[in-house]
Amino acid sequence: MYASGKYSSRGPALIPRMKTKHRIYYIALFSVVLLGLIATGMFQFWPHSIESSAEWTLEKGSVHDAPLIRLPVSSPLPERGDLSCRMHTCFDVYRCGYNPKNKIKVYIYPLQRFVDEFGVPISSTGLSREYNDLLSAISDSDFYTDDVTRACLFIPSIDVLNQNSIRIRETAQALALLPRWDKGMNHLLFNMLPGGPPDYNTALDVPRDRALLAGGGFSTWTYRQGYDVSIPVYSPLSADVVLPERQPGPRRYFILSSQTAIHREYRAELERLKEENGEALLLLDKCSNLSQGAASARKRCYKGQVYDYPQILQESSFCVVLRGARLGQAALSDVLQAGCVPVILADSYILPFSEVLDWKRASVVIPEEKLSEMYTILKSIPHRQVEEMQRQARWFWEAYFNSMKAIGLTTLQIINDRIYPYAARTYEQWNNPPVVVSRMEEEPDKSKSSFQAHFFVIKHTAVTY
Predict the structure, then answer these.
(1) What is one Pfam family matched by this protein (predicted)?
(2) pLDDT tens per residue across span 215-230
(3) How far apart are CA 160 and CA 206, in angstroms?
(4) Which of 395, 378, 407, 389 is nearest to 435 (CA)?
(5) What are the distances in angstroms from CA 7 to CA 1, 2, 16, 19, 276?
(6) Helical ranges in 255-403 per DSSP H
(7) Per-residue pLDDT tens for 272-310?
(8) With a cut of 70, which residues of the chain have pLDDT below it?
(9) Are 381 and 364 in contact (CB under 8 A)?
(10) Residue 272, SS3 per DSSP
């Protein structure tokens, strides 16, 4: 009895003390784990301003203040672009990793001045205004990171927009010296004017290993579908001339041609169409009676009469865009800005952003050999469809063509959609203007049928080279 009484006298006092110690231990352990989870969540979901606020801008330092890099003659050369490259073979998607915002991170290399062993620059122009605008826009976007270890995509500060202004071999050597080059893996180059005389290749001639190419003149022979991105040739008039949006509908002219460097065979065919159809077709050329310069570039002439360019484009329902020495033409951007439906005659040309944009809704594509039938073909398109195409052409320019910023960010969004397909933009988001989207929400069946019922494209016949 005594023993049991002694046990009972200690037991009630001992057990609560043990429970209290265990309770404190578990509470402390739970608190540590909870704090760890909160800290991890804040790190993952904190706005990107947690990174350094430094942005890539030319104003941070003059081009002349950039480090000078001398290229030895023996510097390694990249291999020529691999035509078999695809995202699953030449791009390391694992570098992009999981991202709660589904946004790739893009790193821009610091500006450097590359010269050969004799001190001659690899570029005759240095950093162009267009390329600086492009890089600055990317640095201001949600894609940008200044932390190279977090980057999924790398963009050199070496300007290759215009192949005519760079030295091919030395530019390739400069690319190979980039610290993260790794045979071009996950690197992106922007080029709008590829090739050079006499053959004018449709892709950048600079050897670039496995780098992706955003190119402005791809043909079906040089374009690596699902890997490269076809971009427009930027028109400098986009920044200098403001064309107010014009309501779709009939215009003064039915067809207008405004390009000045058309091959003589095409020019002769257009003149024949002009003779057959009279005032319905306006055939313009450069003005021989004006002095050469920036002012003359904005003028076009027909039989001594001077027209303002690109304003005259708004006076026509259809505007001809013929291939020149290069497939990609800046005239396409001018035509879209004017709300004129482009009539594209450039066999094998990969239209800008055709991976996501439905060009049947904004243009008419005709094989070059059917130029003589152009008037008849265009006359067969219903008036209402022409108005829809005029509206769509203008919106394509506003959304994707009107600046280097628009071109650069559209390119990155296309690449982003490939890497995060579950979060990719839909066909409607890429192709429906905002007013069309709202109309579809109100009348989904009518709006859908109005766009799906009408489209126009002439299929290419076999072409022998």
Answers:
(1) Exostosin_GT47
(2) 999 999 999 999 999 9
(3) 9
(4) 395
(5) 10, 9, 15, 18, 120
(6) 264-277, 294-297, 331-337, 374-379, 383-396
(7) 999 999 999 999 999 987 776 656 789 999 998 999 999
(8) 1-62, 292-295, 435-465
(9) yes
(10) helix
